[in-house]
Every structure is written in C-alpha cells, then in structure tokens.
Amino acid sequence: MSPGVVLFTAIASLGANKLRAGLTLLGIVIGVAAVISLLSIGRGAQDAITERIQSLGTNLLFVRAGDSSQGGVYGGQGSATTLTLDDAYALQDSVFTPSVMAVAPELSTSGQVVAGRENTFTQIVGVTPEYKSVREFSMASGQFVTQAHLDSSSQVAVLGSSVAEDLFGFRDPVGQPVRINSRQFTVIGVLESKGGGFFGSFDDQIIVPITTVFNRLSVTRTAKGDVSLQTINVQAVDVGSMEKALDEIATVLRLRHRITGDDDFSISSQQETIETLEETTNTFIVFLGAIASISLLVGGIGIMNIMLVTVTERTREIGIRKAMGAKRRDIMFQFLSEAALLSLGGGGLGLGIGVLLSWLLDNRSLGGQSFQTSFSSDFAVLALVVSAGIGLFFGIYPAMRAAKLHPIDALRYQ
Fold first, then answer.
1. Could you give the CA distance from residue 192 to residue 208 in angstroms, rounded to a whole number?
2. Which of 25, 35, 46, 178 is the most buried (most CB within 10 A)?
3. pLDDT higher than 90, residue 145
4. Which residues touch 321 (CB under 8 Å, ≥6 apart)?
5. Is residue 270 within 8 Å of 60, Cβ to Cβ?
6. Are 159 and 191 in contact (CB under 8 A)?
7. What is the rounded average pLDDT for all residues in the chain?
8. Higher model confidence: residue 359 or residue 210?
9. Half-sphere exposure of 266 (CA within 13 A, CB side)
10. CA separation for the pair 159, 368 (Å, rounded)
11. What percent of the chain has pLDDT over 70?
12. Average pLDDT over every residue of 237-264
C-alpha cells in the first residue's frame, strides 16, 4: 500500500474510536508537557544562577588561605591564617603582577546588629574601597567605604539590601546609627540587591572598612602579628589574562611565604565557580527530565495496551485484508502508523501545553518561590523524537502480532 493510503486508513481507524484514542493520547500529552515544563524550569534556574555569578565579574580570581588539597594552586580552600594584608598590597605591584588590574582584600566576621528595636545576626565584611569596583556592586543610596574611612578606622557601615530592610523597613537608613557587637556605627550607604552567590547571599551582609574590623571588631593576626585575611579578590586586566594573572599571583605569594613545598594558599576563578554550578544544575535538569519521563513511559504502555485491544477487535478485518492480498509488512505498517499517529499527536499537543506552562510560570511566584523558565528548541526536538520513539517501540509488538495472524484463523475469529 502507498504511504497515503496507510495514513488515511490509520486516521479513519483512530477516528472510529475517538474517546479511546483521546484518552490514550492524553497519557503522551501529559508526559511531554511535564518534560518540557520541568526542563524549562531547570534550565531557567541554571541561567539565573549563572547570570547572577557573572554579574559579579568574569575576570575574577579568589586567593584563599590554607593548604591546597592537591599541593597546587588549584586546590580547595583551607582555613589557616596564611594570607595577610601585606600580601594583598604586594599583589598590586605592577612590576611583578602586570596582569592584575585591582586587588580587594576581604576580612569577614559575624555579629549582632541592632537598630532601635530591630536586630539581626549577619556577616560583617571588612573591605577596601576597591571592593566595590572589583565585585561590581552598585549603591542604592549613600556612599561606599572611602580611603579616609580606611585610614581612620571609621565606624561606618554599608548595609546589604536585606539587612537594611530587616532593620529599617522602608525607611532610608543613611545617617542612622546601628550597633554592631555593642559598638556604635553610622550607616553611610545601602547596596543594591545582588542576590545569592555560591558562598551565600550578598544582600545579607554589612560592609565596613577592613581596618575597622581588625582594630574594633575582630583580632585576627598571624603568628608574626600581621593582619590575617580569609580572601583576596583579584581582578585581572581581562578574561584573556586570567592564566597569566594566576601564575603571577602564585609566584609572588610563594616568594613572600618562602614556600619550597606545598602551597599554603589556593586560587580559584569565577569561571571555575560557574562551571561547577553548571555541572551541578545539569545533573538537576537531567533528574527532573527523568522524573517527568516516567509519565511518558506510562503513556507508551497505554498505547501498547490499546493497540493490543485494537488488534483483537479487528482480527476479522486483518483476515479479510490478507485474503485480498495484503502482505505482512502492509499489516504491520498499518498498526505501526496508528501507534505513531497517537504518540506524535500527543507529542505535538504536549509540546504546545509545555511551552504554554513554561511561559505562564516564567517570573511567577508560587508558595513564596519565584520561578524563572527558559525554553529551548532542543527541548521540543527531544520531546517529539522521544514521543515518536515511544509510539514505535510500544506499537511494534501489537503490529507484529497482527501481521503474524493466519488469514483463515482470522476469518474464523468471532
């Protein structure tokens, strides 16, 4: 038979049992819609996280104290007090580190912050004025820490957006006093919201001059009495200079620390953080797709069940067609085409519903959680190919069973 006749016969056969065909179709529709919508949610979450990290700068290197896990500069972060403020100043030397554009040392502690009747426990980050440009922060109001604040160890504070909201609500905090670990500070600015990062939320922190942290809030010094740091943020000249900057930083620190064996520091890049998160979220996306695919499997089983029932109901028809000269392959192609029509029709409808759900969920808040979705054309291709494959896989056994029927036995079937 010609493909046109096969297709016309398949449509007519399915149309003869509209309700049954529709219910079978529904299983594939639900499966494909679930796959499309969940994959879009997963990809949207991945894009949101990556965009948030990239907003902090893509040409960043993070130098952290402690032994590297593999004896090299690419090892994991340690906790020893091996980095000092003088190390950070040494990395600003254009002679030894020409690939470094800016350096922003960071010294963190935590404390109780009180403003009037409101209080919160949050992270206190001591920084230099370069921190604002290196980490690409913007001010919602007021000003950032200046060199004058640094020189005089001023008790001034810049609030993260969530801290400002917790302590002052919708009031402007600039100029207001706050108490940090029982010491009075003056709020000089509020940062614009930047969201969460790989190591925590950038909105839930208070920024003060780094000299204020080690002189007023936290005594963190090395055995030699130098000011100890947890992190030195380094901004390379550009993305292409990242490897050179990394080698220059490692060389300077090895010379300063007189290292002959394993390094007592670790260096990581922003790109490494992004790649790690992408690997994690890719696993999450695959997991979501696998869960949604279960409904597709159930839909495929439904197709096989209905096709087996159809073969039984149309046994005499198969016998008549074989007696009139239809070959085995004609019968098999006929039932395969019906199974493929069911799966592809369900795949197409499910694709449309999945795209609609992705659009409806984009930037919507459900249960206090905001969804960001990202639909991709490869999701559509994957859904249609999988639905067609399911139709063929689960339809081939009923089709082969129909094709193997002996015409005399089929004509005698009641």
1. 16
2. 35
3. yes
4. 330, 331
5. yes
6. yes
7. 79
8. 210
9. 19
10. 24
11. 81
12. 86
* Alpha-carbon 243 to chain mean position: 26
Residues in Cβ contact with 246 at an 8 Å cutoff, skipping those fewer than 6 apart: 61, 73, 267, 269
Q: Are 39 and 289 in contact (CB under 8 A)?
A: yes
Least Cα distance to 233 among 197, 283, 276 occurs for 197
Query: Do residues 66 and 264 touch, judged by C-beta distance below 8 A?
Result: yes
Minimum mean pLDDT among 23-37, 129-143, 316-330: which range? Answer: 316-330
Res 76 pLDDT > 50: no
Instruction: Please write the tens of the pLDDT for every residue from 316-339.
Output: 777 777 777 777 777 777 778 878
Half-sphere exposure of 6 (CA within 13 A, CB side): 17
User: Residue-wise over 19-49: b if at least 16 C-beta within 10 A, else e?
Assistant: eebeebbebbbbbbbbbbbbbbbbbbbbebb
Under a CB-based contact definition with an 8 Å cutoff, are residues 122 and 113 in contact?
A: yes
Token pair 């999988």 is at which residue?
A: 386
Q: Read off the tokens for 179.
A: 């108490």
Residue range 353-364, pLDDT digits in tens = 888 888 887 777
Under the banding of pLDDT at 50, 70 and 90, the label for residue 375 is: confident
* Selection from 304, 335, 347 nearest residue 25 by Cα: 347
Instruction: Report pLDDT for 195.
Output: 61
Question: What six digits make up the tokens of 230?
Answer: 């947890």
Two tokens, residue 400: 């082969």
Asked if residue 199 lies in contact with residue 268, where contact means CB atoms within 8 angstroms, the answer is no
Angstrom distance (rounded) from CA 319 to CA 338: 18
Contact by Cβ (8 Å): 160, 203: yes
